[in-house]
Amino acid sequence: MTNAEHDADADDPARAAAAPRRTTPETMRVTDPTRVRALAHPVRMDLLSFLDDVGEATATECAVHLGQTVANCSFHLRTLAKAGYIEPAEPRGRERPWRVVSRERNITPDPLDPASRRAVLELAEISVRREAERYIDHLRHLEHDGVIDPELIPLTQLSTSAFWATPAETAELIEGMHALMKRFDGRTVDPAIRPGGARMMRLLTAVNPDMAFEPAAEAAPHAPQQED
User: Fold this and answer.
1) Whole-prediction pTM
2) Domains along the sequence of the chain with CATH
């Protein structure tokens, strides 16, 4: 560990006094606009994503991965900790790593709070642009590399779809996608259970009603009936 990292952590009373606690596997639900805005920053989003990927990391390790200074990473890590997204992990000697409180975060606007709605919108705009840029960077990487692994081509997909579905059917679809992802739980934090040849994959899903179309007024004669 560098002296810069040790000083950044040791000189922070809140960081130095915080006792490591068990990371909860439950989904973190966030509606508070202050906590939502704490995420709406590119560096903090990159830090949280990196901690999701590696399990835990020090400010120095984060700085190396992100190409940032240790001091800058320490500042943004403390901001994430204050908002409740990360917590101190078990010390490694003099090193002070951080870990996420939960890898599953549900950021949802409070329909009765305009500030919450605005904060979630700001975060969503940053998130979608960030993921789109990452996907485009991947395509450029494939295009400009001298040798392309043919196995990577079918692993890189972009698809869109439009369909008519009731709210209940849409909720079932969303739950089904979450269930499909459950089979990969644990592989990020435990390399021992990763199958040979497994790669770190990125998946972005988005579903929303198309407000240009009115809901179906009544069921067609042969349409399935909604269950109560």
Assistant:
1) 0.72
2) 3-107 (1.10.10.10)
